[in-house]
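Submission sheet (multi-component)
Chains listed below:
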Amino acid sequence: MELTYVSATCSGCGTVDKVAVDSADWERFIGGELVQRVWPHKTDDEREVLIGARSGLYYCPICWDDLFAEENFE
Ligand SMILES: [Zn+2]
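Outcome: structure written.
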């Protein structure tokens, strides 16, 4: 099994988070497979990195909490 190191940069604070995944799984995800079908056992935080790396828009858990708190406040 060959590993791919997927990284995403937080749009809020610039933190870079990385997740190591099987290259074949990453190919499936890039091809359009749903994240929960490719990696049913990964944590939500890890999935956010993978989704962010694919879409180009990522917020780390700390910034994500801030965004969510602001939404609740309104
Ligand atoms: Zn951040």
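Remark: The first helix runs from residue 23 to 30.
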